[in-house]
Every structure is written in C-alpha cells, then in structure tokens.
Amino acid sequence: MRVIRALFVPAALVVSVTAASADITGFIGSTTSPTNRPARGFAVGAGILVVGFEFEYSDTAEDADAGAPALRTGMGNVLLQTPVPIAGIQPYFTTGGGGYRERLGSDATTHVGLNTGGGAKISLVGPLRVRLDYRVFRLNGSPRVNVVHRLYAGANLAF
Fold first, then answer.
1. Mean pLDDT by 10-residue block, N- to C-terminus, for the chain (159 residues)?
2. Which fold has domain 20-158?
3. Taking the model in full, what pTM does it have?
4. What is the distance, to the nearest Å, from the Cα of residue 59 to the centroid of all Cα atoms in its chain?
C-alpha cells in the first residue's frame, strides 16, 4: 500500500500541475497627470494559474510648455488574474513597486514609487491579444507630481 501511495502522489501532482504561461507587451498610451502626454513602453511577464509577475518599463514625454515632466518608470509587479480568459477576456489586478526618474528641463528627481491598477488581456487570434491597462503611480521623494495616472493599449503576445 505504501508503494502505491509513493507512486500515486507524485503522479497526481504531475498531472495536476498547470503549465506556466508567459507574455510580452509593447504599448502606447497617455500619462494624464498633470497633462496628457504620450507614453510608451513594454512589459514582460509570467504566471501560474491566478498569480503572475511582470517587469514593466515606461517612458512618458515631457511637455515643457505645460510644466509637465518626463517620467521613466521601471516597476516589478504582481498580478492577480483569472486563470483562463472568460469570453476571450482575461481581467487582472496589479500592484508593485520600483524606481522612477522625473525630469523637467535640467531639473531631475530619481527615487522609488508604487503602482496599482488593472486591465484586461483580450484574445484576438492564436497567441495575439490586445492589452488595455490603467495604472496609478505614487511617487516618493520630491517629484513635481506625486500621483500619476496612465492609460495604455498594447499588443500582447502569449507564449
């Protein structure tokens, strides 16, 4: 009986393990605080069932006339998501932290920040998806803008 259990338990674990998934996203969007400015970047992530992890880099353009600084962020995030798409849509919630650099003219601030947001990955064809995302960044240190909002759309490739 012990031999059967010794063989059955590892076999059951192997059968029940779901394969990990990964994806990459290239995006364009808008940072809306304090004014609308173009943002672009990429995200690389991996997940198992409902938990995922990603690294995201974003670059927002400066608008000197409006006094809106350029913003570069590099964030590591945890995602909570549905394990499979529902009607072709996989919603998610994300939170994380990392570094940022805010620059307006020759004045620059580099520090750490947090972000929270959510979105959806919408299936198109095969592994190609559209990703829609909204984030709120809370920047520490002495930035010109402490709370930054960003909205983007991107092409997402699952593998």
1. 66 57 97 97 96 98 97 98 96 98 97 98 98 98 97 97
2. Porin (2.40.160)
3. 0.86
4. 14
